[in-house]
């Protein structure tokens, strides 16, 4: 349990975007409503060159959120000490406003599988994930946010609901949560659950950041809708609605627009940030 | 049925394995195609990482052949680190013994060139050696130690590697000549670029990098290549920021 003061209120309750190097110049010249940026930690673990130079320059103008995709917090094995050390180094020199990671696993033995793989919600998983969060928070010396996954399937062995599982992690570790409302929409559709009920059950007091993003629509072999969390399209209207419902309950929060594949030009991404600003205005 | 991560991983990378029992869809039926989403994510995301890492190999093979190669490679060599900027280090060696592409003998060296360019892109920053630093008495120059810039890479090849790179990156580039070419990669500011090394130039730079003095490195290069042109190699090294100042000792 970490008793440091929370770090998650360091991000402004305003729109942010996932940073893409092709937007570097336009983003700085015409940020519009964008007050903060999120970077994927692993892309900034080189020794130097353009990525690090750009990040230094951006951090002068914007608050920065470091979002890890490689820590494998749900992994059955121990956290990789070399990777933890790289994170500590990055967080040390950048002093970001927030650090977040995923409720998922991606490492098996010495292999890194480069995807956010799902976890069964059991007492055993809970104990392991809580230990790993404790280790991350004590290594980095700050609170971390944990993101709810997008799910394509469920585990028969699960004994916890995802929202109860996350609430219990918050209680045990003092971590905050990153609520991805697109993931809620994707998981609810894929698993035949209610996204509204999920938001109602979510521990919103612990939410330090919200994600919205686009997804792809497919169907499975039974003709049932199967949504894929692609981050490669505009945010759909039902996800914006879910965001508004969430904000009405939670109050203002930092909102990130994620667009990671088929990245659009800057004006298109900025207009998504405009829409996030509009969603925030009634709750200010 | 408990689905351990070992079982999940086994079926993830081997599509001939059945989807593990105990994984369900929203109607409590076996997960079936939903498991394929994860299978697909892993192979597609790693293939994309390789495509970013190996632009020359990609250009030479085309999208379809590259995707087939990547599909085999990612299962044989999954990443050992969450840093995608390091993924693919084993591809040149893999290509050396990959029968279906054995007719493209130069491909492994092209992969080495791609890796060297990427390594240069992410290498540490350092000041380039200013030419004035070499304006000293000949005896002092001979005894000087010079370090390679952290971004500098050398790829030796028995293929016309530099010409192959040019042909695939420059309009109106000449046809590759039937010669062996060593390539110097440097990163003056943020963008790495390849340069053709004169004969003996690779050995000369590697000798400097190993700690030999300016004079000793010259002797090493001359012993291997009797007509090694020091002035030409040094001019190239200075013009391309291949050397750095921070370890320079002029004693």
Automatic annotation (TrEMBL), chain A:
Family annotation (Pfam families): MbnB_TglH_ChrH
SUPFAM superfamilies in UniProt: Xylose isomerase-like
Coiled coil: none
Top-rank taxon, per record: Bacteria
Protein name per UniProt: DUF692 domain-containing protein
UniProtKB/TrEMBL annotation, chain B:
Alphabetical list of Pfam families matching this protein: DUF2063
Keyword DNA-binding: yes
Keywords: DNA-binding
Entries under InterPro entries matching the protein: DUF2063, DUF2063_N_sf
Domain Putative DNA-binding: 4-95
Molecular function terms, GO-annotated: DNA binding
Gene3D superfamilies, per the entry: DUF2063 (1.10.150.690)
Key word DNA-binding present: yes
Name listed for the protein in its UniProt record: DNA-binding domain-containing protein
High-level lineage: Bacteria, Pseudomonadati, Pseudomonadota, Alphaproteobacteria, Rhodobacterales
